[in-house]
Amino acid sequence: MKLGALLGVAGLSAAACAPASNPPAVPIKQQGTVLVSVVDSLFDAGRSPSVQLDKDGNPVVAYLLYTPVLKKGEIPPAIRPGDPQPPSVMLATLSNGLWIRTPVTPQKTAPQAGTATEIADKDGHAIPGVTASLALDAQGKHHVVWATPSGLFYSTDAGGTFSTPDKITGSASFGGSVAVAQDGTVWVSFYSVGSLKVAHGTGGNWTVDEVQKNAGPAATPATVSAIRVTSNGDPVVAYGDHGATKVARRSSGAWKTDTVPGQGGYGVSLALDKDGNPIAAYYDAGGGVHEAHSSGGKTLAVSDVASPPVAHGPIAPSTAWGTGTTLDDKGTDYVTWAGIQQNQILVATDQGGQFKPIPVQGSLGGANPSIAVSADGKKQAVAWFDPTNANLDVASTSTGGLVLAFPLPTLGPPTAPVQPTGSTPPCQPSGSSTTLQIAAPAGAAANGFDKTCLAVVAGKAFTVDFANDDSPNIHNWALFKNSSANPSDQLGGGTISQPVAGGQTQSYSVKALPAGQYFYHCDFHPLTMTGTFVVPKP
Q: What is the pLDDT of residue 420?
């Protein structure tokens, strides 16, 4: 099946949260099936998706489930008996045309609630730095790892149902990834205590190797690791390290690390070819996407997958950045990523010797994509998080061609752009001052900045002093041309949107802006921490 069959046409299923007796109905003419499914939408669902295919080519996705942050006047979702409740680590499987959602972490029954408190704040809301990863073993059993500020956790259903989670380490952990060797050994890569580490074990007994000290830093958005295991049982890890992509290989108990030429290190993903050679996909600091590969242990060579959205230098990495990469048995490389300039999920293969990005329809605003492809290349799945609607979305194919019956509607259109300044702007400058103050108060992740409007006189450069008073959460302040918040429309260049730890402050310098209304938000909480920036006409 050509890649365009997955990307160019799709049908929509929004029945994922309906009872199992209500299968999705997709009105398309078909010889095979191409679906973009809203797999989970009841709560804040779908962050950090990790997709694999089972032995029948059906997609399986691990992801995170949170209590949604409600806006004023909104009513929380009703608790329905049998529905998994947040906070929870989740697994969704497609079987006989139905998505079945299973909690990986235990659920309370009285009252009905999730128990994965390590992934959330005290109100069950999402917190920065939590990731989930999924691997399937040779028997088709699921192995799930989640990295959190409270430690690194693992569970499997190899015994029939998901086990009580193992705590691999109690230290703050970030960017975790899991793989399973043919002999059943579980391998997990992660950042912790300033180092890149790899744990391996069976039966709840874990051994941890320190692969590199002073790696990451893990607090930088899109700094993650990815692990795979060769056919002879040796693990290979790709990871980000201070603006570079690195690949580490373990042989005879020792680790050897290679640095990929050029800039990189963000949103790293990894696949291995049939000979165990690594293929890593990643962003550079400017937002360009690349793939590095080696053959026969030779130096890693780099191919460009997508050009950076801007030509004037680095931009701040975003929590939405993520890549996925995999291969079929013919050696065709598949890469997916969150397009910065396009503001949607993109997929490309190296068929024809050159990567050609193709958008996944219905993925506008999508983040953190993951990809899986069957050995023959005929079945493909891409999973991503929809931040606009807080949904888990999956595009998947099976064999055969497809004739389009109607175009896929956009899943949750973005907020309309902010209009030019009218006669009654929401706020006015305070005199001629060019120094502004804004803060993230306690509870900002749910309640927003302390100011929802800032204003400055036209024609003058200015400074924004940002204080993060919401410890231990990470926040920032990012300014855009309009409320679509497309990274290519971000203002201020590299001086804007640096993450700020709880209890810290940051000053952002911005060049003079023409009159108009602009938009700002926190990259870590873009749905709740927002505001309007006004530059009135002189």
A: 39
